[in-house]
Amino acid sequence: MFILENYLKTGIENELYEAHASLLVEEGYDNRLASVRLLGLDIARLFDKNTVDAVTAILKRETDEEKGFRLLRQMVKGDLSHGTRFQTALQLLKKLLQGVQERHGR
Asked: What pTM value is reported for the model?
């Protein structure tokens, strides 16, 4: 959760504004959401297809309500009350998945 919430602070801000401004527009100028999508793009760029497929499968499973949100439970320390922290974590994981999938056109 820490990385997802703070990826913008890792020095990618110029890249986000200069090379990926469309992400900002699509996310209503929400820097955090756009930066998480950029993280997904970076993950997909850095890893080979098998690893990206595995990451994609994990993120799909962990953002599917029917699968029990095991990863989300860990991210929000067991709070599955669907409160603000839970919804934020779910949104960030979905944006990460979106970025990974965008890189490979899935």
From this structure: 0.87
